[in-house]
Amino acid sequence: MPRKYFKKRIPSIKASGGRKNWKKVIWRATVKNLYLAANSDQKQFEHLLEILTSDQEKHNISTRATIIDRLIAGASYRAIGKEVWTSPVIISAIKKGLTQKTYKSYWLRDRKQQERQIQINKFEKASERRARPVYQKKRTKYGTMNIRID
Fold this sequence. Notes:
The chain starts with 12 loop residues before the first helix and ends with a strand. It is mainly alpha-helical. Helix 2 packs across helix 3 and helix 2 packs across helix 4. The radius of gyration is 26 Å and the shape is elongated. The protein contains 7 helices and 2 strands, in the order αααααααββ. It has a domain at 13-105. The chain has a two-stranded antiparallel ribbon. 62% of the residues lie in helices and 9% in strands. The chain has helices at 13-16, 19-38, 42-52, 55-73, 77-84, 88-100, 106-123; strands spanning 134-140, 143-149.
């Protein structure tokens, strides 16, 4: 994977002095990487991002940037998951986003699949649906059994 977007390495938790400080360090490194990619004034660019993003969005962007950086470096899913506290599904979605040039969250992909299934079921004829089998409870010497009635 090319390093043209992430010229500066994002430091690990140990190198930044704890998880709380790590978020700030990641955000600064992400901004610096975006600055180097955009070739703009860093303070103006950081200010613009501060205005445009909430704390949760900053966290999400920083986490994704860290995952991308670790994927480029060749780290395993397990190592990335332990460092960033995320699941392999999210890491896989971000990796897939790198190859497809866009990121789609797992929730959106799952939601589209549910909508397609609803449309398929909506147009299915009632006569084509299978009738549920009917069972009758019968006491035997082996205990109560459900016997199918046709």
